[in-house]
Amino acid sequence: MNDKVILFGGTFDPIHYGHLRVADYACEKIKAQQVVLIPVLCSPHKESLPAADGLARFEMISLALAERKNFRVSDCELKRAGPSYTLDTVRHFRTEYGKGVNFYWLVGADAVKDLARWYGIKELVDACNLCVMHRAGFERPVFAGLGGVLEPAQVEKLRRNVIRTPLIDINSTEIRCKLVSGADVSGMLDPKVLEYIKENGLYIA
Ligand code: ATP
Question: What is the secondary structure of the chain as a DSSP string?
Answer without folding.
Answer: --SEEEEEEE--TT--HHHHHHHHHHHHHHT-SEEEEEE-SS-TT-SS--SS-HHHHHHHHHHHTTT-TTEEE--HHHHS-S---HHHHHHHHHHHH-TTPEEEEEEEGGGGGGGGGSTTHHHHHHHSEEEEEP-TTSPPP--GGGTTTS-HHHHHHHHHT-B--------HHHHHHHHHHT---TTTS-HHHHHHHHHTTTT--
